[in-house]
Amino acid sequence: MTSTSESTPVVSEHPERAAATVEQLEQEGDVAADYIEALLDITDIDGDLAMDVRAGRAYVSVEADDVASLRLLSDPDTVQALQELTRIAVQNKTGRFSRLILDVGGSRDTRQRELEHLVDRAIARLDEGASQASLPAMSSYERKLVHDIVSERGLTSESYGEGADRHTVISRG
After folding, report:
1. Which residues pair with 104 in a beta bridge?
2. 138: closest CA among 119, 156, 152?
3. From CA 149, how far away is CA 145, in angstroms rounded?
4. Which residues of the chain have pLDDT under 70?
């Protein structure tokens, strides 16, 4: 298990939710790992678990030497659903809202590349004369990744909408 040993509170993007300490995030990771391990046992899928705490979130990764064994679980929609179920399990066990991130078989790296491609296509629309380019609705984690990608490319972005309709709009600034 890889983790940070500091106990500094982590600032939440939701002020009504108390900031979690590194110890609390490590506990989230442990609870999540137990939940995922039980799921893997039930489905008879071999996988190794790694846990980390970074950027105010617990991260749990499922990896396997045989990538094919995780193929069904690493589908982006499946990972998102498993992440939500795992967050609920963590919340039920700890009594705290969880922003845990789950990665299965490199699914987060794959999604990062997809988002980079999506941003590049949006930038191409700007290059063709559009004043702004809207991306589809996505999770808060994915929007954060998009904001980071857009910033790296020297442009600006803002999120608009509520709930499941919240999306990012890119502009030249």
Report:
1. 62
2. 119
3. 6
4. 1-18
